[in-house]
Amino acid sequence: MRKKAFLQNVLLRGSMVRKMPIHRGKIILILAAIQLAMFSSAVQALDWSQAIDAVSEKSDSYWRLAEARGLESRFLGTGLNELHVVEHKCSILGRMLERINYITPVELSTEFDVDNADDQTTAIAAHSLDNWVYQAKRILDLDRERRVKEWNLDCVGQLGIPLEAFVGEVSRQTFFDIEGKTLRVLGDVGKDFSAALLEAINSSPEIEEIALGSGGGSVYEAIKAGQTIRRLGLETTLWNNCYSACTIVFMGGVNRRIWSPYPELSFHRVSIRGEAVDDYDPVYSHIAKYVYEMGGDGGRFVDFMLMASPSTFHSPHPDDLCNASLATWIQRQCI
């Protein structure tokens, strides 16, 4: 049966940019509806390419309009580089994974009066569309398993997307992708994770940074992985949200940086088969000792863990992460 999806009502809302009031009010733009006929993967790819071209043309038209209204430069400042990146990513992933019914909060729309907008507001709208294009191109190149992992990790339970929007994963495979001097890790910290990480690092002697995205996993595999990262003198950063045992791996970096749009570094209690271990279990002492050895405040690290049950998460304020030396630098937040 023919299935149709529409790229429409994409929200460009400045108020959703975290801690960044960027102009005099909300920016809300409704994209022209772009029909995506999804007969097969080949046709789907073709239709997304057409959608990308259409949004690019819309962006160009707004840039030209902004310039006609007096815009002197298309450089709007680094504070807008990641404008709506998370919202666009989740909207695109939701459509590609047939979770359209769940992304309404992300794509809520009201009229954007482009006819009466000033040059700056028009330019910001154009810039957001450029970010949509970037995300669409990036996600289009991913296979389904990687799309699913990003959706579950970065979108489900956030931006108003309910937990029931979770997509079952065919495999528990963790991906290790090399891009220049960065090794990107996406997936669980499972059995033999530390050995697989070392193998991936050894495959490219130019690697200087480990970019993490994970829902967590084994505490002891995470510690081994973090120790390996430190022994090799590598840095860590976040590529996607980093939960649970992933925070332990993150601590292995000589420098531990978090870039905007600020993927979450989130903590919770250690559990065995879903049941929280006792607060005085030796595992917490082991974790604290490791964190101290990595240059962080092990006591605060464990405190953050104990602030959430095994089924919830605690995401500390950036200042708290820096003050406890858990992150060594957070863009525009703390150093």
TrEMBL record:
Superkingdom classification of source: Bacteria
Family matches, as Gene3D superfamilies: 2-enoyl-CoA Hydratase, Chain A, domain 1
Name of the protein: Uncharacterized protein
Species for this entry: Limimaricola variabilis
Organism ancestry: Bacteria, Pseudomonadati, Pseudomonadota, Alphaproteobacteria, Rhodobacterales
